[in-house]
What we know:
Layout: E1 2-10, H1 14-24, H2 29-37, H3 44-59, E2 73-81, E3 85-90, E4 96-101, E5 104-111
Antiparallel strand pairs: 1-5, 2-5, 3-4
Helix pairs in contact: 2-3
Amino acid sequence: MVARAKLRHLRVAPRKARLVADLIRGKSAGWAQGVLTHSPQNAALPIEKLLRSALANLMEQDDARGIDVNEAVISEIKVDEGPTLKRWQPRAMGRATRINKRTCHISILVEASD
């Protein structure tokens, strides 16, 4: 049994979100929630909420009777680059420098271990 959840346009750089995603890839959902709760990275809270959403999607399936959520496994978590917000910062002598504010899309796939 498989459930998925997606998070789009998260205002965290994909490079930083991948560091958090690599921590929980292939781990059990209960262990991953504990790691994300105590992780100091800014991307940990949205990824934890996304994991809870995927687990809720798993529990809402018709044949999900008797599934222990802590035994579910994160089979796939993918962080893709989203659109970049381009901003300008004033510099010396009337110049300007472009600031790239990156976003990312995260998708997670949770499997129930039978």
